[in-house]
Amino acid sequence: MGTVSELSHLDSDGRARMVDVGAKAVTRRTATAKGRFSTTTHVLDLVRRDGLPKADVLATARIAGVQGAKRTSELIPLCHPIALTSVTVDFFLDDDSIEITATAKTTGTTGVEMEALTAVAIAGLTLHDMTKAVDPDSVLGDIRLVAKSGGKSRAPVRPGTATVIVASTGAAAGTRTDTTGPLIATWLREHGYEVEVAIVADADVAATLEAAVATSPAVIITTGGTGMSPTDQTPEATRALLTRELPGVAEAIRARGLPHVPRAALSRGLAGAAGDTVVINLPGSTGGVKDGLAVLDELLEHLVAQIAGGGAHE
């Protein structure tokens, strides 16, 4: 059993306190919770047919869950007020219960586990309120956290691993052939990395990047989506995950291409670290990728070693 000092919301004298998160890194944080509302088959049939005398049961419970997540700090005394960026509440009906799933997201210095759990609890209590006239003996339970990402929950980095993400709606749809992903993957393998490659539409870059960072490869290199097209979102998706930026690396990549491609100045690519993972944005052209890899050829090994705690300054 842990001691009092190991409980984050108690000080060394056992008094309740709000944890100071001011020194924590700002990262994108997500939490998913589940719960189960057990009731009769008759109630479930009425819910499916929208046959209860009150308003749409699931829609009302969904709104209540979102509202509960937003007001968690008012309900749980030591929770921090959080600027939530997203809350979703979903329901799955089976033979004798309704499974409730809630996912909360934020970009900040503390996690959203309590917000996700509160969303499930409030959605479930609303289900009871909406159905108690038919089944006053329903049971809400099995509320638990099932997943979280961001902050300290990130797994230790996996040395010698790399992920390549190609942001190309056309390549993802199969209407054009990507040449940049294979070029980067070959370069990484020549440098001793085990490589995974993902080709995704521009609209899916943020989710793919977040999922890749959660698996903690040593290096993530993206290609594409760095320009000014309305669909180019790679830098925005990257910035949301970086804990430290490396503007000098990004500028060096742009400068490498400028002498022969003036449009290289239009690239908005970023470079930095998401926890202990190096993340580099490269342009979507073969020439831009070659220029970027030429810069990384002189930097990446030293950068990865530094983040891992080695690679002393020379």
What does the model show?
The protein has eleven helices and ten strands. The chain starts with 26 loop residues before the first strand and ends in a 7-residue tail after the last helix. The longest helix has 19 residues, at 113-131. With 314 residues, it is of the alpha/beta class. Residues 1-5 have low confidence and may be disordered. The chain has a six-stranded mixed sheet with strand order 6-5-7-10-9-8, with helices on both faces. It has a four-stranded antiparallel sheet with strand order 2-3-1-4, with helices on one face. A hairpin with a 2-residue loop joins β9 and β10. The chain has helices at 41-49, 57-70, 72-75, 113-131, 169-173, 180-190, 205-214, 234-239, 247-257, 286-296, 300-307, and strands at 27-38, 84-93, 97-108, 139-149, 158-167, 194-200, 217-223, 244-245, 271-274, 277-282.
Features:
314 residues; alpha/beta; 6-stranded mixed β-sheet; 4-stranded antiparallel β-sheet; 10 strands; 26% strand; elongated; disordered N terminus
Topology:
Elements: E1 27-38, H1 41-49, H2 57-70, H3 72-75, E2 84-93, E3 97-108, H4 113-131, E4 139-149, E5 158-167, H5 169-173, H6 180-190, E6 194-200, H7 205-214, E7 217-223, H8 234-239, E8 244-245, H9 247-257, E9 271-274, E10 277-282, H10 286-296, H11 300-307
Parallel strand pairs: 5-6, 5-7, 7-10
Antiparallel strand pairs: 1-3, 1-4, 2-3, 8-9, 9-10
Helix pairs in contact: 2-4, 6-10, 9-10
